[in-house]
Amino acid sequence: MAAICQQKLEFLKVRKLKNLIELELDFDGSPVTAILGPNGNGKSTVLHALACAYQPADKGENLKFSNFFLPSTDALWNDSYMEITHTYRDGPTLHRSVKTPYEKSSRWKPIYARQPKRDLFYIGIDKCVPMIEMEKKQAKINYSTNEVAEDIFTIILQKASLILNRRYLKYNIHSASGKNFMGVEVEGLRYSALSMSAGEQKVFHILTTLYNAPSNSLILIDELDLLLHDKAMMALIKVIHARATEKSLQVVFTTHRETVISLSDIVNIRHLFSTPNKTLCFNETTPDAINRLTGEQPKPLEIFVEDDLSSAIVTKLASQLRGKRLVSIQRFGAASNSFTAAAGLLFSNQDISNTLFVLDGDVYSTREQKSAQLNRVITGTDHLSDTYRARAIDVIKQYHLPDGSKPETYLHQLICNIGHSENEEFQEIIQAALDIVVADESHKYINDIIDRLGLERRVGLSKIVDLVATTNAWDDYTADVRNWLREKIEPLLEPRDSAA
Known about the structure:
Blueprint: E1 4-17, E2 20-26, E3 32-36, H1 43-51, H2 65-68, E4 81-90, E5 93-104, E6 108-109, E7 120-123, H3 131-134, E8 144-148, H4 151-164, E9 168-176, E10 179-186, E11 189-192, H5 198-212, E12 218-221, H6 230-247, E13 250-254, E14 268-274, E15 279-283, H7 287-294, E16 301-305, H8 308-320, E17 327-331, H9 337-347, E18 355-359, H10 367-377, H11 383-394, E19 396-398, H12 407-418, H13 424-434, H14 444-453, H15 457-468, H16 474-477, H17 479-489, H18 495-499
Parallel strand pairs: 3-13, 3-14, 7-12, 12-13, 16-17, 16-18, 18-19
Antiparallel strand pairs: 1-2, 1-4, 4-5, 5-6, 8-9, 9-10, 10-11, 14-15
Helix pairs in contact: 4-5, 4-6, 5-6, 8-15, 9-11, 12-13, 13-14, 14-15
C-alpha cells in the first residue's frame, strides 16, 4: 500500500469550538504561519484543534481531542464543529482541497482511525518548564553521558549557536534512572537539561523537533516567544522558515510579540480577535486595526487605510479640508481586512458612522465585489446581519484607478506626465521618477523615488503626495474619500475655520 505524502493544510473553518466562533483561517503563502491576538481570543485553541485533526503517518505524535478537550461538568464540547481543507497524495493520485469535517454530539467524529494521516508534532508551553523544576529528587542526580555525533545534531548546535549567541560545541544524551535527557558543551563547560534555562531548553527542543521531523510534517508551537528575547526569537523564526522550506514542512505558532510582523515576507501573519458573534481573522495586518477594536475611537473621525502611501494621501486630503486634527488614520494591511475590521466594529456594537475604510482601488472596486467579501465575514441571514452588511458597505470606499493599474504605478505615471515644474523640490521628484523606466514590483516605483532622493520614508511620501495633488487627476482619483471627508469635517469646523 502506497504511503500518504505531500500533505498540505490549506484552511481551517470552525463553527464552534471552545472560544472560537465562525472562524475562517487560511494558511496560504509561506509554510510558516504566526497567529497573534489578545489573550483569550483563541490562539491556543487553533493549535489544539489542528493537533487533533490527524493521526500519525509514521513518526508523529498520537494526539486526540481528549488531550485538549477533555469533557467536564461544565464543558461537554457538544455541538462542536470544525473543518480542515487539505491536499495530499495517495500513491499516484493527488487529492486537492479535500474537506474533512470534525464534530461532537455524543462522541467525536470521524473516529480516530478514519482521520487523515500526517506526522504532527505539538510543542506546548510545558516545554518551557526547566527540567530541574520537574525533578522531585532531593539527592544528587547521577547520570551517564554519551556524545551524539550525527550530522543532524551538528546542524542543531550550529543553529542554536546562531539563535542564542553562544558557541555550542557538543550535543550529549544523559541517562539517569531510566530517563534520557539532553545536554550540551559550551567552550569547555558541560551541562545537562537539568541546568539549562527555560528559554535555552525550549530552543533546543524546537530545533530537535524541526530537524528530525519527516518531510511534510505539521509542527505546532504554542507561544514561541515565551522566555525568548526579541533577537533570539527572530533568528529562530528565520531558521524555522529555512528548514520548513527545505523539508516541505508546515509550522504554525502562536505569539504575543508583534515584532514578528517585520518578517511578513517569510511568515503568514494572522491576527485573531473574538467578538460575541464571530472570531475574526485579519491577514497580514499591522496591530492598528486590532488595537482599535479593543480601544476607543481616538478622534471624531477615523479612517483605516491599507498602507503608509494611502495614509499620506488621506493626510493631504484632510489638510486641504482644514480638518487634519479631527482625523485619526490607522492601517489595516491587506485589502480583505477592511471587511473584517468593519464587521468587528459592528459585532462589538460600535458606531461606524464616522469611520471610513479606504481601499487602494486595485481590488474589490465594485459594489458586487465588496458585497461578496462582506458576505464572507457577516454570514448570518437574519435582519441584523443584513443591516450590518448594508452599514458596512457604505463606509468602504476606494481611490479611482484606471482598470488594471496599481496605485504606485499610476502615481508614478502621473508624476512623469507633469514633465516640468518651476518648484525645485517638485522638479527633483519628477526627474527621479523619469529615471525609473521599469521596476520589478509595482510598489517599488514609489520606493525607488524616495531612495533616489535620499529621504526618510514618511517625508518622501508626503512630498510625493504634495506633488501629485497639483495634477489635474488628483480630484478624480481621490473623489470618494474627499467627498466623505468634506461631509464629515465641515460640520465639525468652527466658523472661523470654515471661513478661512
